[in-house]
Amino acid sequence: MTVTHHRLLVHNGTFALLGPSGDITGARGALPDGLFTRDARHLSRWQLTVDGTTPTVLVPTTGGSGETASCVLAPPGGRGEPPAVTVFREQTVTAGTLVERIRLVSNRATSGRTMVALTVDADFADQFELRSDHRWYDKPHAVRSRETLPDGVAFGYRRREWHSRTVVSAEPAPDAVEDTGSGARRLVWLLESAPRGSAELVLRVAAHPHGAPGPATGSDDFPAAGTLPSAGPGMGSLDRACARGVADLAALRIPAEGPDGTIHRVPAAGVPWFLTLMGRHALFTSLLALPHLPQPAAATLPALAATRATQEDPARIAQPGKIVHEVRHGELAHFGQVPYARYYGAVDSTPLFLVLLDEHARVTGDTGPARALEGDARAAVEWMFRHGGLDGYGYLVYHPDEGGLANQSWKDSPDAICFADGTPARGAITSAAAQGYAWDALRRTAGLARRVWGDPGWAERLESAARDLRERFLADFWMPEHDFPALALDGTGRRVDALASDAGHLLWSGILDAERAVAVGRRLLEPDFFSGWGVRTLAAGQDAYHPLAYHRGGVWPHDNAVLALGLARYGLRAEGDRLLSGLMALAERHHHRLPEVVAGYGREECPEPVPYPYACSPQAWAAAAPLALLTARRAAEGGDGVAADSSENGAGDTSGNAAGQSGERLAGNPVPESAAAG
Per-residue pLDDT averaged across 370-383, rounded? Predict the structure, then answer.
């Protein structure tokens, strides 16, 4: 969200997008306003008039926290007749609720009466209906209702078993509730004020969505912003970015159920479009936040275990053991009009689940989640071999989903996986980054099998499979003419030769040997990749590059944070410092909040970062990125870069053939099916 005159409030699975005056107009498209929870708009109009006129904005909606906004208004006036009253609005979002205080302050020396009216409505639109693509969805048997209450009005929506409600109440109660003829209702008050006195209204909008879960259980131990240790002298920008990130992560938490019915607070992906559980986003957010914030990981692991697939469903790309990509709670998902109620279109969420399971145990010393989720981990490994592609292809592979996502790695826009000339990759796609996660997941799960589950035989099979995967990868993906890995292999096994930031993820996972990793790390900081704000998703100068393309030129802070951890892993401190400097300059231009993505224009072309028009803000993995940058800096300062022969940390085992192979796919030996067995 890049329009600065609107104010976004978010808390515990609910958000409100308000105009400069605090109003809601029912807008659709790139910036739909309203009160939203569980993928539905529960308040679509909220428009204030004073004495029959729309007030003038004196101070637009502002606010220091993520939950409260305020603005100052006045009825139209002029030099000869200044406004009789000034209006102060304060709006706060909590779980499922918007509370507004309207205070009218009289500017007159005599008593007076002011008519205040608020036009309200709830359209209960599903978020998928509000997007800019203007899709239309049939809703047979849908019925809307309005009921006047003693202190306000209730709006209802029913479609077969689906039932949602929004209740608007006021103190004092309105003097009248009027039918506008459009379905909306107008609440009217006649307020008396003493000379220079004031009058106040308190309004409460309570959303009652279909199927809402209960509250999260247990105490909320999420730390307050600003409680992290300092990054050190001269690192004030990083400290402020971390504080902003922690505050955003706190606001973005939503309730999600674990395997035993316990409600956890998990990181939602971002607002306005993705205030929901998304597997890859929650996993990366949790990984980037460790070790500073273990809470997201502790919540994410059981929530994703509870939603892992247990049977095959081609419409949702589900197979047993696969970790979910996206969970939706809206009407369209409920009735199967969009496939995202539980959608499994991600090739990487499953290995990342295993990576997080081990990393949480390593960082916290708490093996409880690993013990509790052993069955889920074994099912995830089984999926990687039997369904993910390790048995049949030797790699994790995905097929484009005609009804959902064409690409199923983190760069999931339709044109993201392409050759350097811009030609999209076709057929079964083998994403490079996903192979790094798979390699790391196999090794880490082997470690859990030894340390926690007491199964050394299975550990040995997983370690053998990981060695074979790494050897194949280094032979099949390395492009000697570029001294750089391919973005992917296409359906024919041809190397997809676009030079892309995904290579940074290979440093993070450790699948590259030290010599290649150092070459890649230095290459990613050259000018065609590094914009001055961060590393572009595609290097400039390629035909495929576009500075305003989501995944073919934009700069993503979380992508850069993953790279920063990879640079620290291989001891590339100078490159890490340069990357940190650019990202902190970017954060400073956004009030210390790293955006989801910015355009790829270089700092020498434009002295200010160019926003990406449809970016989410706040967004979870962008909020966690400063914490990863803090981790990377401390590792670099402590000399904790990975030694070239450290197989434990992934830089060792340099047996992969450095000489590249031809563009034709080298099949290698498929991993034995027995490696997946417990």
Answer: 98
Predicted TM-score (pTM) of this structure? 0.91
77 — pLDDT class (breaks 50, 70, 90)? confident
Residue 229 banded pLDDT, cuts 50, 70, 90? confident
Give the angle 28-29-35 at the CA atoms, nearest 5°.
45
Q: Give 89-116 pLDDT, tens digit per residue.
A: 999 999 999 999 999 999 999 998 999 9
Structure tokens at 605: 């072309």
d(CA 463, CA 447): 9
Closest residue by Cα to residue 424 from 432, 414, 436: 414
* Mean of the per-residue pLDDT values of the chain: 91
What is the rounded CA–CA span in Å between residue 320 and residue 312? Answer: 6
Question: What are the tokens at 80?
Answer: 């000869």
Region 619-630 average pLDDT: 97
Q: Percentages helix, strand, coil for the chain, rounded to the nearest 5?
A: 30, 25, 45
Distances (CA, A) of 195 to 50, 101, 110, 172: 18, 21, 4, 21
> In what helix (H) or strand (E) does residue 565 lie, and over which residues does it extend?
helix 557-569
Q: Give pLDDT, residue 651.
A: 39
- Degrees to nearest 5, angle at CA 394 with 406 and 565: 70
* pLDDT confidence tier of residue 663, bands split at 50, 70 and 90: very low
- The answer to whether residue 593 scores a pLDDT higher than 70 is yes
pLDDT at 64: 52
pLDDT band at 411 (very low <50, low <70, confident <90, very high): very high
Q: Which of 194, 204, 34 is nearest to 107 (CA)?
A: 194
162's tokens:
């689906």
Tokens of 376: 């889920």
Could you give the CA distance from residue 103 to residue 381 in angstroms, rounded to a whole number? 59
DSSP-assigned letters across all residues of 473-534: HHHHHEETTTTEE-SEE-TTS-EE---BTHHHHHHHHT-S-HHHHHHHHHHTTSTTTB-SSS
CB 165 within 8 A of CB 205: no
Joined together, the tokens standing for residue 113 give 């009466």
Of 212, 282, 179, whose CA–CA distance to 40 is shortest?
212
- Asked whether the predicted pLDDT for residue 676 surpasses 60, the reply is no
Rg (CA), the chain: 27
CA angle, 569 as apex, 567 and 575 as ends, to 5°? 20
Tokens, residue 591? 């009030």
Could you count the other beta carbons within 10 Å of the beta carbon of residue 107? Answer: 15
- DSSP of 163-187: EEEEEEEEESPPSEEEE-SSS-EEE
The structural domains of the chain, ordered by start, are: 7-208 (2.70.98.50)
Task: State the Cα–Cα distance between residues 556 and 560, nearest whole angstrom.
Answer: 6
| Range 389-398 burial, b when 16+ CB lie within 10 A, else e | bbbebbbbbb
